TrEMBL record:
One of its GO terms (biological process) is amino acid transport. Pfam families: ABC_tran (PF00005), NIL (PF09383). This is D-methionine transport system ATP-binding protein. PROSITE patterns: ABC_TRANSPORTER_1 (PS00211), ABC_TRANSPORTER_2 (PS50893). SUPFAM superfamilies: ACT-like (SSF55021), P-loop containing nucleoside triphosphate hydrolases (SSF52540).
Length: 361
């Protein structure tokens, strides 16, 4: 196994207010390897921002261990009083190697695009000419060279985020934390920004921690996913595993939204065939990856078990270069054969979720 570039172990973050205690992050461990685009997905309030802010100690954990690029930033088993924390000088230097971008861009409005990027180089040991060259290079990378003398108010949301990305990359970080960076953008601009992040990952080896409430964004570029709920990671895995074989209800919800399957299920469920499902029928969702394809699956069911499959909806997504297929089907057959057929599908690596008619099994 590759050594982690970010290692969070048993992280707890507790906020104490006058008369209440909020456990924003509860015993979360997360290992990010170099070159990962690790998506952390969850609804608002799940604790995502609090968790990722512990990576650069913008949020000091209540307990746990934070190791980034082999430096221990924080190590405290029980509470902050006895914890070891990296000294502030070192932390300041290390933080420059961890870029961060946010939903609302956080640009300085009274400074030009070039000045915003140059701001991140204030402490860099570079001559003025070198700094100017670096700013030019970064603006070229994010395709904003022609906007260098404009002010943030003259830019679109996507352009502002690209300035923020250029600024985040100024000190050549190996890690970029993206906290809801596309949440304020329209779908087309979102895809452009995600495309840029993917390019930075592929061409420069940038490791990205992608915090979002949109599984769609994770689907586009991440190779790994963790799902957060109530301060905990409830499910994690490779993008492919999570999409092909989600275990938790919340994960399923996120995936259905990202693949538009939620709408398909709602629409198809209204059809008379599903509404009037017969005693010898089940309505199911089949999910399969790569090596399986729809025709052999369906043909096999008929050949071996005389099960007739009526496909009401089908979709194929390409994730990380591998096909993930989803079918909404009505399967008709004798009870024991339906049971055997469904078991056979599961054995062949097809995820079968009975949406209606489980009594037929
Ligand atoms: N500084 C703070 N003081 C007190 N409570 C906080 C603080 N920061 C966050 N919280 C609480 O911790 C919980 C997790 O918040 P967090 O912002 O990490 O969630 P999130 O998943 O990132 O959601 P969002 O996308 O809405 O920011 C919430 O209940 C929030 O109100």
């Amino acid at each position: 196994m590759t050594e982690s570039i970010i290692s969070l172990k048993n992280i707890n973050v507790t906020f104490r207010q006058k008369n209440k205690t909020i456990q924003a992050v509860q015993n979360v461990s997360l290992e990010v390897e170099p070159g990962d685009i690790y998506g952390v997905v969850g609804y608002s309030g799940a604790g995502k921002s609090t968790l990722v802010r512990t990576v650069n100690l913008l949020q000091v954990p209540t307990s746990g261990q934070v190791v980034v690029q082999n430096s221990t930033f924080f190590d405290g088993q029980d509470n902050q009083n006895h914890a070891k924390i990296i000294n502030s000088n070192q932390l300041r230097q290390k933080r420059r190697k961890i870029g961060m971008i946010f939903q609302h861009f956080n640009l300085l409005n009274e400074r030009t695009v070039a000045e915003n990027v140059a701001f991140a180089l204030e402490h860099a040991k570079l001559s003025d000419t070198q700094k100017a060259d670096k700013v030019d290079e970064l603006l070229k990378l994010v395709e904003l060279s022609d906007r260098s003398q404009q002010y943030p108010s003259q830019l679109s949301g996507g352009q502002k985020q690209r300035v923020a990305i250029a600024r985040a990359l100024a000190n050549d970080p190996e890690i970029l934390i993206s906290d809801e960076a596309t949440s304020a953008l329209d779908p087309k601009t979102t895809n452009q920004i995600l495309g840029l992040l993917k390019k930075l990952n592929q061409e420069y080896g940038l490791t990205i921690l992608l915090i979002t409430h949109e599984m769609q964004a994770v689907k586009e570029i991440a190779n790994k996913v963790a799902v957060m709920q109530n301060g905990q990671i409830i499910e994690r895995g490779s993008l492919l595993d999570i999409f092909a074989n989600p275990q938790e209800q919340l994960t399923k919800e996120f995936i259905e939204t990202a693949t538009n399957l939620d709408q398909a299920i709602a629409t198809v469920s209204q059809q008379a065939l599903v509404q009037n499902l017969q005693a010898n029928q089940i309505f199911a969702r089949l999910t399969y990856t790569g090596s399986n394809t729809n025709e052999p699956l369906i043909a096999g069911l008929y050949r071996q078990y005389q099960i007739i499959a009526n496909i009401l909806y089908g979709d194929i997504e390409i994730l990380q270069g591998t096909e993930v297929g989803s079918l909404l089907v009505i399967l008709t057959g004798e009870q024991d054969k339906l049971t055997a057929g469904v078991a056979q599908l599961a054995q062949a690596g097809v995820n079968v979720e009975i949406l209606k008619g489980s009594h037929a099994l």
